Amino acid sequence: MQQPLAFRMRPRTIEEVVGQQHLVGEGKIIHRMVTAKMLSSMILYGPPGTGKTSIASAIAGSTKYAFRILNAATDSKKDLQIVAEEAKMSGTVVLLLDEIHRLDKTKQDFLLPHLESGRIVLIGATTENPYLSILPAIRSRSQIFEVQPLSEDDMKIAIQRALTDKDRGLGNFDAVLDEDAERQLVYATNGDLRSALNGLELAVKSTLPSEDGQIHITLPIIEETVQRKALTADKDGDGHYDVISALQKSIRGSDTDAALHYLARLIEAGDLPIISRRLRVIAYEDIGLANPAVAARAITAIDTAEKLGFPEARIPLANAVIELALSPKSNSAYTAVDAALADVRKGGTGDVPDHLKDAHYKGAEKLGHGVDYVYPHGYPGDWVPQQYLPDKLVGKHYFDPAGNSKVEVAYKDQYQKLSDAQRKGLKK
């Protein structure tokens, strides 16, 4: 039985890895490990289909070490013993351990001495946060790297490579992928290259060639093989971005009906990850301090939608959209942090005042670090005037609350009161 396209197209060397250049690009950490042949165990975490297995395969291929794949949940201690015996006989083995967050203590205890000796280079793969889900003994012996969703350009490179590769890919089928079909393949799979290649292979192998022998892959074919409709078949392919943008602008403009219309279009396209991400942004960018309770409820609704999945997800999403659209609006937090970032990026920082510097080490007092710090909780109201900003930024204001709701008016009053007291206190 032929292996799936995604399996066949796994990179053979580190240079063939698509995306993840912050890890595998020339001069980056994993590339340096491979170049020096100084591999250490690592944990790769991130969404499905983003290249965790590909990176492991490429590391093994570039270093010429044996490569084995096991699953922490389903493979037994005996399977690990077989890998360990192979490592004893032939030298180092690169072991990709999928779902490493499900590794039990018995298997962990077996692995640890082999990791210490270097006979097994463990590459753990997980979609879970390793700092919360992986046993400390394994975590402490591994470097942790986050694998990011592939960009559209990365996805297109991998798709075209698979389409034209005659040895491992689909190059012998003489298939042509329409531009709008390729765009939908990238968009609908949301950075999951494995899903994209699966959809592409199904499309090519299930489509009859035309009279000239060419297999023509159109948008409707890709919609069927990835089971997600395009939002629109517009020529420039910006339809999905336009709908997402319209959803945010309708909520920002407090037009509930328009917001529900654009939400419905995204729901019909089955685009839960995009809806969730955009609503999270809206809750804090456009509502923010005007109504923190609504922002928090929206996040709860979004989390519920993600756990439910479609079709039920539409209900909490509708709740979130309606509340966000009808809520008072404020972008004061968003503009405040951007103003602070603008100063930092143009070099407007200055030294941290000595009394605020870390004093939890021997010799800090001799440097004057933390010596004159005044502890606010020792004063009435848990507040006392003292300088917090660097000298060159004293008196600088970033936060400019609009006061468009009772909540933000209260924040504005408190901000003004504290700012005035700080200024008067420092003048004394």
Description of the molecule:
By secondary structure, the chain is of the alpha/beta class. It has 4 domains: 5-146, P-loop containing nucleotide triphosphate hydrolases (Rossmann fold, 3-Layer(aba) Sandwich), CATH 3.40.50; 152-226, Helicase, Ruva Protein, domain 3 (Orthogonal Bundle); 239-326, Zinc Finger, Delta Prime, domain 3 (Up-down Bundle), CATH 1.20.272.10; 343-427, Orthogonal Bundle (post-AAA+ oligomerization domain-like). The chain has 19 helices and 7 strands. Strand 3 (93-98), helix 6 (105-117) and strand 4 form a beta-alpha-beta unit. Helix 14 (256-268) runs antiparallel to helix 17. It is globular, with a radius of gyration of 27 Å. The termini are far apart. Mean pLDDT is 89; it is low at 233-237.
On the 0 to 100 scale, the average pLDDT is: 89
From the coordinates shown, what is the CATH architecture of the largest domain? Answer: 3-Layer(aba) Sandwich
Radius of gyration: 27 Å
Poorly predicted runs are: 233-237
Task: Provide the β-strand percentage band.
Answer: 5-15%
Shape: globular
How many β strands by DSSP?
Answer: 7
- Work out the count of structural domains: 4
| End-to-end C-alpha gap | 83 Å
Strand order of the largest sheet: 2-3-4-1-5
Query: Quick one: CATH class of the largest domain?
Result: Alpha Beta
Strand and helix order: HHHEHEHEHEHHEHEHHEHHHHHHHH
**Count of alpha and pi helical runs:** 19
CATH fold name of the largest domain:
Rossmann fold
Percent helix range: 40-55%
Q: Biggest β-sheet, characterized?
A: 5 strands, parallel
By CATH, the superfamily of the largest domain comes out as P-loop containing nucleotide triphosphate hydrolases
